[in-house]
Structure formats: structure tokens, C-alpha cells
Design brief:
Blueprint lengths: L1 E7 L3 H13 L5 E5 L27 H5 L5 E4 L2 E5 L4 E4 L4 E9 L3 E3 L12 E2 L5 H13 L2 E5 L3 H12 L3 E6 L10 H13 L3 E4 L2 E5 L6 E4 L4 E3 L2 E4 L3 E3 L2 H5 L4 E2 L2 E2 L12 E3 L6 E2 L6 E2 L4 H14 L15 E6 L2 E7 L2 H7 L3 E9 L11 E9 L5 E8 L3 H13 L4 H5 L17 H14 L1
Parallel strand pairs: 1-2, 1-6, 2-3, 6-19, 8-15, 9-10, 9-15, 10-11
Antiparallel strand pairs: 4-5, 5-6, 7-16, 12-13, 13-14, 17-18, 20-21, 22-23, 23-26, 24-25, 25-26
Helix pairs in contact: 1-7
Length: 445
Amino acid sequence: MRYDVVVIGASAGGLTTAVAANRFYPDKSVLVIKKEDVSLIPCGIPYIFGTLGSIDDDILPVEKFLEPLGVGVLTDEVSRISPNSKTLKTKSGKEIAWDKLVLATGSKPVKPEFPGAELEGVYTVPKDYHYLKEFHKKVGEAKKVVIIGGGFISLEVGEGIRKLGRDVTIVVRSRLLRNSFDPEFSERIEEKLKEVGIKVVHGEAERLLGDRNVEKVKLVDGRELPADLVIFSIGYRPNVELAVKAGLKVTRYGIWTDEYMRTSHPDIFAVGDCVEHRDFFTGRPHPLMLASTATFEARIAGANLFKLQIVRENRRTIGVYSTRVAGLTLAAAGLTEEATRREGFEVIVGYGGGPDRHPAKFPDTSTVTVKLIFSRDRGAILGAQVAGGKSVGEMVNILALAIQKRLTASELYTLQIATHPLLTASPVGYQIYQAAGDALAKLRA
């Protein structure tokens, strides 16, 4: 078999690459190879516990999505890539020739190697339908669940399991969501978790105790937490095995790519969790793994497969996040205040807050808090953090665009927007205006 474009992986990055390749090069044949017989929507996985009815409500119908576009889908696992001959082989024995190849091989959860990690009742959160099916069943049988890790997945899974009536404890070494938010936002989400009955323990796990099944989590300080099910949610590692075997350039953060998502081989591209991402401001590599980032990179790769297009290049990664836990929506873009100070930026911080409807008597009104971080030298926005209701999810996208365009506090303060009583905050008290104005006053002081 031979195809013009072969994409390995069918999650957010792989799917989007295939669609982009089909759109920009409709005369080219495209094949997506997926290892999983059942694909999942990655961001929906935490919600199979307590929010969705079951894991079957989170299925991504890859074939139904791609086949009407004329994109082929093969369920198989690639065992070897041969860059020189531009072929690949699968575990079932198929050999496929390609002109352009895209690696969208994703990531896998980290499971630490310390005593007790091999006990029954210890899980991670992979993108694996059959594993999660069994995991979901075990959660239903558990009474006390301990989650190790303080990131987005920990909080979202923890809330879902709590909705099922289970006793849930989250163990975090320092503070919740520390890589994405400053301390005041971490404190706010911890308070909300406690309100819904989730315990947050600050400490470091040392070992798991039990005979055959896990029974306790022992912390470094000697405390022991009872548990009949333990979940490790301490990050993910890029799946780079195929790239390494193929002799591509790979760093500790993933597969190296240029601004057009080309790897060290000019006809092999890579996107998503398997790729080394570089920070928008510092250029340093960092382990950012988001579906939104994967699709951003995939659109660039798909557009540049056969013809480089300057207007479609990767100018580094900002990092835009959002989550909703215990009734609170949190979102962030760019650098935190802590990160800017570590990097040596001189910054000014502006705050804004108030209801996201006007008047505030509407039943779905929530209080929104905005924190904006600007460089002191020219007032350019470096980062944003927002907390409140569901309106926060789109507000952070405005701020992400502002960061990409390096808007200043003055430009945000005079931003032209649409408002409506049922949909937005008042134009008088729009939270972005407030935060930008607060920063402007400090810049001029």
C-alpha cells in the first residue's frame, strides 16, 4: 500500500492533521493508523466518573468522522519506521509506503517506581478504553480513594469520584495546580474541593502498603492514609519510541520539531503530546500536553506538508488552560506571576472582579476574578488567570489572543467588545477592563 500522507495516531493531533491535510491538499491520499480499536475523547476521560453515564459516552467515532472526507483509517500498531525508504511496518505485517509521515503518538501516564506501586488497586489515567473500563468498575467497588498529584486530571477525576459518594483524598506535595496558577487561585480551588467533601493533604507519598491489595498510602512524614484504591496522576511522558528507533532527534521533552512541525527528517512531521514544546516568552522547552496545543500544531503541520506557508508556522507555545471543578471554573494563559519573577521579568499585576451578568440578579450570574500580568517596561501582557463561572472559558481565549499579539495594558483597557445583560458583564465593569486599568494606574505611579 502507498499513501501520500500517513498519520500515526488518531487522537486530537492526529485527527486534526488528517483533516487539515485533506483540506489543503485535496488531491492527496491520506491514511490514519490508530492502535486502539475504541478511541476516546481525551479531555472527557475524567468525566466518566460521576458526570457521564459511562465510558461509552466518551467514545470518539474516528471512522465516522474521517471516512466521509475520503481519509482512510487502519486499526493496527506501527512497529517500525524506515525514513530512508519512506516505509513503515505494522504488527500485523503490513508494509505501507508514504511520501509524508506525521507522528501523533501522544503520551502515557507516569507511574513511579516505589514500594507498593505494583499492588492491586493502583491505577493511572491512560487513554485506553479497555483499561478504563476495568478501572471504572473498581472505582464503583471502592470506598476510600486516594489520588496522588495536584494537577488538572487529579482534581477532575477526584470530583467525579466524589459525586459517586466515595471518600476522596488528594495528596499534593506543594499546592494544587501550581504550574498554571498563582497561590491565591490554588487556595480558592482547595476551598471549593473541601466544600464538596474532598480532603486535600499536603505531603509526599513514600510507599503504598498492603498484602495483595493496596490498603494505605504512607507519606514521607510518617502519616498513613487508608485507601482501597489509589490513583497516580503525576504527569505524562511523550510516546517517542518510534521516533527514537527511526533515528529522529529526540530530547527529554519529546520529538524535536521546527516552526513548521518538521522533525529532523524533512518529510516526517510530529504534533501533540509526543513533541517538545517551547515556551512563547523564553523559548525554553517545557512539558505542555493539551489537546488544544495538539490541534494548533496539527493545523500547522497539515498546512505545511507539501508547501511551506509562512503565515502558518508555530511561533512557540503559550499554554492556555481551563477546568471546572466543584462549581468553580479556572482558566489561565501565558506565564504566572511566580514564573515571570523566576525568569527575571519586572512586572505589574492588575486585578478586576465582579458579576458576569448585569444586573447581577440573573439566576446564572457568577462572580469573576481576573488577574493580568504585564511587563513593567512596555506594559505588554505576559499572563492571565481567571476564576468564576462558565463565562471564564471564553474570556481566557480573548486573553490568549492578547498574549499572542503582545497587547499592552493600554490596548486591553480600550478593547472594543460586545456586551449583553444575559451574556456578559456590564461594559462599565468588564473584568478585563478593570484589571488592565488597575495595571495602568500602577505603571504610571
